[in-house]
Backbone:
């Protein structure tokens, strides 16, 4: 693994741990899915839930103003959520900005990938406090 | 880790992988939860789901006719399932016997632990094919 890749991975894990802690603080459950990203089956990064509402979450963190996602990653998140019957969300941590959450259906597409800009997140996404009180999307 | 502990752990992992594969074969999703057993939060071994029905599962395999569970393990599975609003199940693999599934409420208790006998599983449990067509318990 390159140093740059290793740093990105560790940054991603720290963001996941932080988000998991936030969910538990407010009485939700949240866990990482084992082997996410390397499983032979579509896997979200996290599963979080409360009172029958279950969210499949892909977690991203960046120091830039935008983040590209391989198309497959989001297609697989949607496939997982649709089969299981749970909600599909992207959790986005921009540098020095609170967590923002976007439904996968609100992501913008380029010919080869999805892209998430800070502007789009602020326009169409919601914050943590809003996410946890939304009615179920399923 | 002792050799005996290592063998038990590897047997448990093989059983988990086999069960995960069974779920995917029938169109369900199933994944291991990362850090199950060592997490600071209550964690099931597996999460499996289909069309809005989500199961939190503790997986056990044994060559004996009965298996004891620490009380905390089942209490935490129940806590996780109740907070999240999903079903709590124990998946049991006795040697040369098909998988049997028991609701945690059907486990028998000793003063310090829960115990699962083959006889109890066959009387109160159900097989895989039955498990996946049950109506939601939530």
Residues:
């Amino acid at each position: 693994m390159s140093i740059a890749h290793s740093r990105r991975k560790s940054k991603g894990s720290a963001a996941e741990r932080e988000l998991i802690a936030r969910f538990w603080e407010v009485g939700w459950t949240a866990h990482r899915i084992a082997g996410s990203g390397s499983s032979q089956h579509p896997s979200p990064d996290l599963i979080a839930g409360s009172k029958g509402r279950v969210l499949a979450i892909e977690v991203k963190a960046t120091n830039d103003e935008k983040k590209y996602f391989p198309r497959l990653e989001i297609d697989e998140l949607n496939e997982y959520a649709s089969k299981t019957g749970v909600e599909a969300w992207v959790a986005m941590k921009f540098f020095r900005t609170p967590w923002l959450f976007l439904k996968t259906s609100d992501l913008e597409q380029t010919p080869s990938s999805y892209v998430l800009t800070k502007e789009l997140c602020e326009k169409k996404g919601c914050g943590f406090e809003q996410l946890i009180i939304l009615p179920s999307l399923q």
Q: What stands out?
A: Chain B touches chain A through 29 residues (CB under 8 Å). Chain B has a mean pLDDT of 89. Helices of chain B lie at 3-25, 71-84, 118-124, 128-131. The longest strand of chain B covers residues 53-62.
